[in-house]
Amino acid sequence: MIKRSQNSGFRIQKRIVRFLGLILLAATAALAAPEGVASYERTFADAARAYDENRLPEAIAGFETLANAGQRMPEVLFNLGNAYYRNGNLGQAILAYRQAQRLAPRDPDVRANLGFAAQSAGIELPARNPLAAILIDFSRAEWLAFGSAAFWLLFLALAAWIGAPRFRFVSRPLAAVFAALLLLALAGAWAHRDLRQTPEGVVMTRDQKILSGPLATATPLLAVPEGAIVRMLDVRGNWVETELGETHGWLPAAALTPVR
């Protein structure tokens, strides 16, 4: 369930601490300019304060500034979604939550708030088969790191298999296990590649209809509410071929924003 207004201060503050921790780690690792880190920190704190004081346009502007400046972190997008939701912008809220979920797919707060926003918009989130759901429940970065580790462990197991024949009773099954893990990581990376090739898009306008062709005069197939999540299959001029459940059709490109 989405956090209530009386709890928003606690949730925001908890995420401020996490955000500042990430900023400090990034600053140490990348030797970022201290004034740049301080600027992001101030912007986040100011946006959080504006959210707590119900100055929602200011909160939205602050979190958007961070996202556009490259600070596209789950904490930023999560709180941006909260601000949009409280401001009545369901399409923007669902987009921000979905983008946060891409970076932190197992975060229970993101998942709960996205579900509540979808319920408020009167939409169902796209269904996935169990295998695809498992693969997407880990981020692309996690699969790449997991695949890199599996690759080097497989390399070491194969080297031991070749270089130490008397230990093949151990190195052979280990090589098989690491090869299977590498294939799993490749499947996860491929699932995210598929999402990048045909990304999800969020409908940003009300009273929108999926049409049978890329023409304003084409036959309406399905009415879709603001916040509906569709799959973007192809682009033709100012039109996007979309998939929503069993319905394939076209929407104006201006009515959609892709999930990054």
In short:
With 260 residues, the chain is of the alpha+beta class. It has helices at 5-30, 34-52, 56-68, 74-86, 90-103, 108-121, 130-136, 140-163, 168-197; strands at 200-203, 208-211, 220-224, 229-236, 239-244, 247-252, 256-258. The strands form two sheets. It has a five-stranded antiparallel sheet with strand order 6-5-4-1-7.
Keywords:
single chain, 260 residues, alpha+beta, Serine Threonine Protein Phosphatase 5, Tetratricopeptide repeat, SH3 type barrels, 3 domains, five-stranded antiparallel β-sheet, 7 strands, 14% strand, globular, disordered N terminus
Provide a descriptive summary of the structure in words.
With 260 residues, this protein is an alpha+beta fold. The protein folds into three domains: 5-121, Serine Threonine Protein Phosphatase 5, Tetratricopeptide repeat (Alpha Horseshoe); 131-197; 200-258, SH3 type barrels. It has nine helices and seven strands. The chain has helices at 5-30, 34-52, 56-68, 74-86, 90-103, 108-121, 130-136, 140-163, 168-197, and strands at residues 200-203, 208-211, 220-224, 229-236, 239-244, 247-252, 256-258. The strands form two sheets. It has a five-stranded antiparallel sheet with strand order 6-5-4-1-7. 30% of the residues are buried. The model is unreliable at 1-14 and 20-32 (pLDDT under 50).
